[in-house]
Amino acid sequence: MPLVFTLAFRNLFHDRLRFVATVVGIVFSIVLVTVQMGLYLGFGRTVTTMIDHASADLWIVPRGTKCFEDPSLLDARERYRALSIEGVAEAIPVVIGFADWRMPSGATTPVFVIGTDLRSGGLPPWDLVEGRIEALSTPRAVAVDRSYLERLGISGMGATAEIRQQLVRVAAVTSGIRSFTTTPFVFMDVDRARSHTGIPSAKTTYFLVRLSPGADLTRVRGQLASKISDAEVLTPVEFRERSRTFWLFSTGAGAALFAGALLGVIVGTVIVAQTLYSSTKEHLNEFATLRAIGSSRGYIYKVIVWQALLSAVIGFSIAALIGWAIVRLTAETALPILITPGLIAGLFSLTIVMCIASAIAAIVQVTRIDPATAFTR
Predict the structure, then answer these.
(1) C-alpha closest to that of 58 among 212, 191, 229
(2) Are 62 and 189 in the same domain?
């Protein structure tokens, strides 16, 4: 083991209490940044969950639609124009809207209704834990997520309630389909969705377009855009980015999360810098001794950098374990914390940069050491 590493290691562990304080400061800052960034990423993914799970090559949306939850409407007859274009295999209508769910107890709560052609499978519920998709084709059948059963005032499969004074029955239960607005999703057939939301039979919210094998997406998209009035034709990626941009940058919720993530990075950087700078400053006498016995400045700088790197690796490892535990704890909540491999790599790089920057600040202090101070202790 190189002597420079050994010196750095012993410098860190010589005073265990001081070392623990240093690591705690690093762990706290990295966990803070992880939680804030994880919330931001989790929110960004949650707002596009319906778009991510829809089976479509193109989306036909009302002109000016900002996000999936936008209640604007299209003429349902536009579906036949879409089907008349060569290369279009299916144009599946999707109807969305808010409605009141009346519990058996008489209390009410808002729900977000999603209706689609279940035979075509445009946007059916996923991750079913009870029931089958086919069951939703039966009269009054709906699907809900089990995380919302208590809020909906029902026990599960077979339970009944009312939406817009019409009886509904739970025929399927999902797991993990949660709304970032905390409003429960209720899946059903597209015709019943119109009835429960008050949307006329001649209207729909979206069309999910599926192309024939080998069809040219760019050509089909251009023809759809020219043939269907008052509508936009978007790819899933474009619609996803539009929805994410709207919720993250055009609403208070997204702005607050972005500001929190940015503040977390700044606060974390300051904490790490102050912690490591103080830790290095406490060892000035040891560095003065190294200077007195003939060590070069470059050698001392290496010891300081190694101390910073060791602190970064140890602190980040502990913070990563805590972050993993937080991810597990929030997995079933309305706004889960998301930690991606890219975020982990970025946080590790950030930790190294913060620690190295702190080491450089400490090096400036070390350069002012008078070797003679080693003999005045």
Answers:
(1) 212
(2) yes
Asked whether residue 87 falls in the same domain as residue 225, the answer is yes
**Count of domains for the chain:** 2
Distances (CA, A) of 80 to 31, 200, 322: 53, 18, 54
Same-domain pairing of 62 and 41? no
User: H or E element: which one contains 169?
Assistant: strand 166-174
Angle between helices 252-281 and 236-249 (to 10 degrees): 70
What DSSP character marks residue 374?
A: G
Range of the domain at 350: 3-46+252-375
Q: Are residues 29 and 86 in the same domain?
A: no
Residue 10 burial (10 A CB sphere; 0-12, 13-18, 19+): exposed
Contact assessment for residue 125 and residue 177, using Cβ atoms and an 8 Å cutoff: yes
Looking at the fold, whether 130 and 276 belong to one and the same domain comes out as no
Residue 47's alpha-carbon distances to 174, 332, 335, in angstroms, are 18, 16, 10
Tens-digit pLDDT profile for the chain (377 aa)? Answer: 577 777 767 766 766 777 777 778 778 878 888 887 787 777 777 888 888 888 888 999 998 888 888 878 888 888 888 888 888 888 899 999 999 999 988 889 999 999 988 877 788 888 889 888 888 888 889 999 988 888 889 888 889 999 988 899 999 999 888 887 778 899 999 888 898 988 888 889 999 999 988 888 989 898 888 888 788 899 999 999 998 888 877 776 667 777 776 777 777 667 767 766 776 666 666 666 766 777 677 777 777 778 778 878 888 888 888 888 888 887 766 667 778 888 888 888 877 877 777 777 666 666 666 555 545 55
Structure tokens at 13: 């562990």
Same domain membership, residue 265 and residue 327 = yes
Q: Tell me, yes or no, whether 239 lies in a domain.
A: no
- Nearest residue to 209 (alpha-carbon basis) of 91, 50, 369, 341: 91
